[in-house]
Give the backbone structure.
Amino acid sequence: MKWRTENELHTLLSVGRDAVITMEKERFTPSVFSEIRYGEKEGIGIYYPVYRDGSCAEAQYIKFSYAKYGKEDVVVLERASEEEMEEYDKERLGHLLRR
């Protein structure tokens, strides 16, 4: 199921900056992210897109949250804002410095 999540992330990254995508919760695999920070019902992860030729793009910060859409449980995917990316990086740096 990892490839389904990667497909949705590639779609998200190929459209506008403010795009939002939903996918079925059962098909979402957080293991596509290199690092994840979780909240109660949401998280932010770092995703490195890999191209067909095997090369890797720069890190993309993706927010995800769990929601109800009608009767279905879904995951909402969107790009993190600049402020959210900075906060995430500060938290990562703080964690590394405490080691």
